Every structure is written in structure tokens, then in C-alpha cells.
Amino acid sequence: MLIYRVISTLPQVLHNMAAFLRRTLERFLGLAAPMRFPTSGYELVSSSVVLDEEMFDDYSTERYYPVNIGDVFASRYQVLGKLGFGSSSTVWLGRDLRFDTFVLSKKRFAFPSSPEPINTSH
Q1: Same-domain pairing of 54 and 114
Q2: Is 52 found in the same domain as 17?
């Protein structure tokens, strides 16, 4: 009976250990936890609605690096919101999880020869 109790509580024990290790590593590495955004309480915009750069005739999804609010890049920078776009890039507001400061990230258009965006975070 004792062995059954130990085995049945093992998943919870492992979960607690993983959470403890994650918090310890965050403190050791000096990383703040990423923000968690609500999943309800706001109106969703239909994917059929044309937004921002999508209004231009030469718009092509392949040219844009996919960025979503809440994404974390390089295990350090979390995307908080889109600030604007220009003729060759999109500018995002982010949070540096190491120093808990705000940063800007400029994602340039992805070109066929370079599938990754050119990141000019500061």
C-alpha cells in the first residue's frame, strides 16, 4: 500500500521539483518570468479583417517573420506589442527578461535568401 501511495504521488512531486528548479534557474540567471496574457475578456479580431501592412498591394505573408504577442526570443526578450511598421520592417515593444527593462525590436522583412529576420534589438 505504501508503494502505491508513493507511485501515485510521483507526478505531483516531479511537477513541484520542476517548478522549483525553474524558479531557482530564473533567480540564478537573473531572468524574470515572462508575462502571461489573459485568454479572455477581450474581443478577437477575425482573420478576415485586413490590418496595417496587409492593406498594401504588394503585401505577402512570406516576407514577414511571424511574431506574436507573448513570444520570447533568444530566451530573453518577450514581445509585448506592435508599435508600427514601415517600408522594410516592423517595430515591436519588448521586455528584456534579464534586466526587466523595455526594449524595441525591429524585424526587417525576410527575403528569399534569408528566411530569418534581421533583428536590431536595443
Answers
A1: yes
A2: no
